[in-house]
Amino acid sequence: MASIAAHHAEWLSLLDVSGPFLSVRVLKEALPNGLDAHDPQLAAEMRAALEQWADPDGAGLGSADDVEVHLAFVRFVLHEVLGFDDDVLRWDAGATSRWTVEVPQVGMLTPDAVVLDGDDAALLVSVVGPGARVDEIVSEVGTLTSQERMVEHLKATGVRVGLVTDGERWSLVSVQEGESPGFATWWSSLWGEEKVTLQAFRTLLHQDRFVSMGADETIAGLLNRSSEDQREVTTKLGNQTLDAVEILIRTIDRIDQERGGTLLADVPVEDLYDAAVTVMMRLIFLFYAEENELLPVVEPLYNDRYAASTLRERLQAAADEYGEEVLETTHDGWPRLLATWRAVFGGVEHNDMVLAPYGGSLFDPDRYPLLEGRLPGTSWVSDRADPLPIDNRTVLHLLSALQTLDEGGQRRKLSFRALDVEQIGHVYEGMLDHTAARADGWVLGLSGVAAREPEIELDLIESLDEKALLSFLKEQTGRSPATLKKWVDDDEADKAVTKFGITWTATFADADLEAQARRFAKLIRPDSTGAPTVFQPGSVYVADSSHRGATGTHYTPRSLTEEIVKHTLDALVYVGPANGTPEDEWELRTPEEILDLKICDPACGS
Length: 606
Description:
There is one protein chain. With 606 residues, the protein is an alpha+beta fold. 46% of the residues lie in helices and 13% in strands. A hairpin with a 7-residue loop joins strand 8 and strand 9 (182-187). Helix 9 (219-258) runs parallel beside helix 16. The longest helix is centred in the middle third of the chain and has 40 residues, at 219-258. The protein is globular and about 85 Å long. The two termini are 38 Å apart. Residues 60-64 have low confidence and may be disordered.
């Protein structure tokens, strides 16, 4: 199954994807044997048609004379490559006019063709050009690109998917309430060089996928299933990110103990937690920006010395060759991340790389000088940094928690290009449910069901009689009393201790203490290195917090923000809303008036 997953991941990487699209897991389920077989005859006909379209009579595209050739090529792809019959793919006005809508501030929208499934539209088709691009604004028809116009068309008609093409780019547009629009674009010029992209195009958008298959197997069905998968991804990513925060805090706490408590002596534990969360959010935004080429990833200097995405690959390669334990002896990854965050904040002007300064509080080096080994109140511009000796194994775990997903013990790479900003918001919101605490005594990190991972003081559970203990552990972990009664049995505890191996002995140096904790060994969860999650007195650990609920801090979903923004700005950018004028009679204010607006959103996040 891993090879099939790699096969799907390969062709997905060759598409331009923005927003929600198909997940590898859903593709594995729907296409367990991979894409449909390559058809050499069809590929040859495709190449001939592409050559004719690209250079009809040696004149190239762009003149009015090319319109007929342009449309002929599009029809060839739809009818011959994708196999649409004339009674399914309709170009006539009688069919397309049913899906004509007028959208305020956008205008009249009519598909050039429509794929019918009975009386319903399964796909709207829009043909752009010749000489135009699907991702460029055509001033003659408004201020939106053809892709954006398709988004509005789908929203207005309730159709799930649309196809927009300029001949070179074939962009599948998907719209679902509560999600960002999704765009997946195939390039016809790649179909000859990368035949797998033509296979994917034909497999996913063939007529059968619209009218002959069950609802879950249509392209709309696959997208819907992938949306559910993405929600699972959000949950997994949130859990992994929180685990990474805990790993970072434990590492910094260990460094503090090695320095006799001087590092964190004047740092409130809540600030330490906020600093660790900031580290993860910085990485999330770096991954998102790098995959969407918002940062200069094409520049060798950035790619080799700054990029967070390539750092994980280098560290993982070393771990695979020499073992993760060796990474504990090297410490160059953390200073590299610090340098990248400084570069994003302050900018870089160099012969080999130019990076604009983005500023902002997220990447501000002085927000948490602790991360650079500086004292509070010092300046990153004038005061020397002394980076914490955070080892490369810790850095690898931080990066892997965000860049890969654990699926049954196998890790697959996560695409941040397809990650919706709303998902990032929910990951951040989940971290607000926790904080850092300092242990008064020995604390055990227990495993539970439904993502319950409580931290419980050993003295507390040791003081309870069996009935009270089972009741308390049931409440904390969600496990049944029968399971708990079995797990605190001596035999089960001994098996768990054996599984932890030498790390168990290293954790509990005192024999009496080890005997107390041994009873609960089966319940203690392993950390990322396989050691028991146990905190000694005075150490810092991650615990549940009621702060978010008490302060009403929540990530606002798009369904609310869109309405707030729309009804707030409509009256400012249009003439008419304030007077109760019907929406189709509103007039856009002048560019000068719009640019003169001063807008402050004090609750705006990243």
